[in-house]
Write a structure and sequence with these properties.
Length: 476
């Protein structure tokens, strides 16, 4: 009997020991997570991210690739606007690509080592490992950590909850909140795979630009039955006349160069405005050629698409083509009964007496000025003026007061820009790059316009708030 009792005691002890081994506490999970980081070679994940940092939520499809030692590719797609941006890190540096605009921004940086990103596994794991006051729970098949949010470019983000798969420790979900527990960022991973085999050229800048072009061929193909012959030249032999059967791309091919140089567009888009009551502007590879309001004063006239996707202008706000005279704008039949004919860059406004600086700047730049909805306390707008940057014409707005800064807006030609060391800033609706030390410049692209916010005394949080408020105004 005594022997049977001992056997039962040993069996029960072993069972309890095995049961105890099957339960993971925070310490053991952290140790396992550290081990995963140590042997990490590659991963690929996809998910849906919703940002609540502005007035309206922004939703993105996220795809992230990593290959050791330092290759990254993050694709952020806003399906509502059909816009994709790509962040690459390879041996040549860090790139922020806007493929549909054929624009890339290259700079030298230690990103992402010097700043966390909510969609990167390394950032999530490090925030768990470094927070000694981490909170740990279990939900279903997930380990849940509540830790401090450590994102260098966002002072609003205070805490984050991270859901990890209990078997693989792959991320499942992330929620980032402010100090009042309001969720600012929510990311749900739909797929995540460790050890994914990725080709090295997956992180090549040219391949990523070209692959987008291949995907967009179907969208850019001419509609069946559309006219494909080149438009006839205008009497001056420079810009083709715009008729209702003339494709926008054909107009742009002949008129774009002259428009950028300040040559009148010889009535480009006039025929469309007078004939159909709707004046879609011609697309130009170098400069924005804006269309006037429809002749009946009711239809909207979209702004011209530039080489970087010019912003659309609402009815009654469409500026004239760069270099077009006021009389030429009026002759297009596109001013309507409410829209005054804007003056040309550097030309007196013969048909628009009393136009203010904003109207003049809009006219010369070829797109409508987008002003931030947010302005720091004690700051006032000083002036608005048009500026020339190489072959591009832009609008510069100056602000003075408690802080001093300038906002430059330009529709640039396709280019790759190499600059001083910088950092990526997630603005919620797009990605920006901060460069400079004593004088900082935040550069980003949105709706085909490149914005440059420069200051010597504006705090980083204020810099980001101003940039974020641009999207709120652009969406109106």
């Amino acid at each position: 009997m005594r022997r049977v009792t001992w056997i039962l005691a040993i069996v029960m002890s072993a069972a309890l020991l095995l049961a105890g081994c099957g339960k993971k506490d925070a310490g053991s999970v952290v140790k396992d997570l550290d081990h995963v980081i140590g042997k990490l070679e590659s991963y690929q994940g996809t998910g849906r991210m919703v940002l609540q940092t502005g007035q309206e939520p922004q939703e993105y499809q996220v795809e992230v690739w990593y290959q050791q030692p330092h290759y990254y590719r993050i694709s952020l797609t806003n399906e509502k606007k059909d816009i994709t941006q790509v962040v690459l890190r390879n041996d040549d540096g860090v790139f922020v690509l806007t493929p549909h605009l054929h624009k890339s921004f290259r700079f030298q940086s230690d990103w992402p080592e010097n700043q966390g990103q909510v969609y990167l596994f390394q950032s999530l794991a490090q925030s768990i490992l470094l927070d000694t006051e981490r909170q740990f729970t279990k939900e279903g098949n997930s380990f849940v950590f509540d830790v401090a949010a450590n994102y260098a470019n966002s002072g609003q983000m205070a805490r984050q909850k991270i859901w990890l798969d209990q078997k693989s420790l792959a991320p499942q979900k992330v929620e980032v909140s402010d100090s009042s527990s309001n969720v600012l960022v929510k990311l749900d991973f739909t797929q995540f795979e460790f050890g994914k085999k990725l080709e090295k050229d997956s992180f090549d800048m040219q391949r990523n630009m070209t692959s987008w072009d291949l995907k967009s061929l179907d969208k850019d193909a001419p509609v069946s039955g559309a006219a494909t012959e080149p438009a006839a030249a205008s009497p001056d032999g420079k810009a083709p006349a715009a008729g209702k059967d003339t494709p926008a791309s054909a107009q742009a091919g002949a008129a774009g160069k002259d428009a950028a140089a300040g040559t009148p567009a010889s009535g480009a888009s006039a025929g469309a405005a007078a004939d159909g009551g709707k004046a879609p502007a011609a697309s130009s590879g170098q400069s924005a050629v804006a269309a006037g309001k429809a002749a009946d004063g009711s239809a909207k006239a979209p702004a011209a698409a530039t080489g970087s996707g010019g912003a659309a202008a609402d009815a009654g706000k469409a500026p004239a083509a760069p270099g077009a005279t006021a009389g030429g704008a009026a002759s297009a039949g596109g001013t309507g009964d409410k829209q005054p004919a804007p003056a040309a860059a550097g030309t007196a406004a013969t048909g628009a007496a009393g136009a203010d600086n904003k109207a003049a700047a809009n006219s010369s730049a070829g797109f409508g000025l987008i002003e931030p909805s947010y302005m720091p306390k004690g700051v006032a707008q000083q002036d608005i003026r048009d500026v020339k940057l190489g072959e591009n014409t832009g609008i510069m707005v100056r602000y003075q007061g408690t802080y001093n800064y300038t906002l430059l807006e330009v529709a640039p030609q396709t280019q790759t820009v190499s600059v001083l060391p910088g950092d990526i800033v997630d603005l919620g609706y797009t990605l920006g790059v901060v460069t400079g030390d004593e004088k900082k410049t935040l550069t980003w692209t949105y709706e085909g316009i490149e914005f440059r916010l420069a200051t010597a005394d504006l705090p980083h949080d204020e810099l980001v708030k101003i940039a974020q408020s641009v999207a709120e105004e652009a969406g109106k």
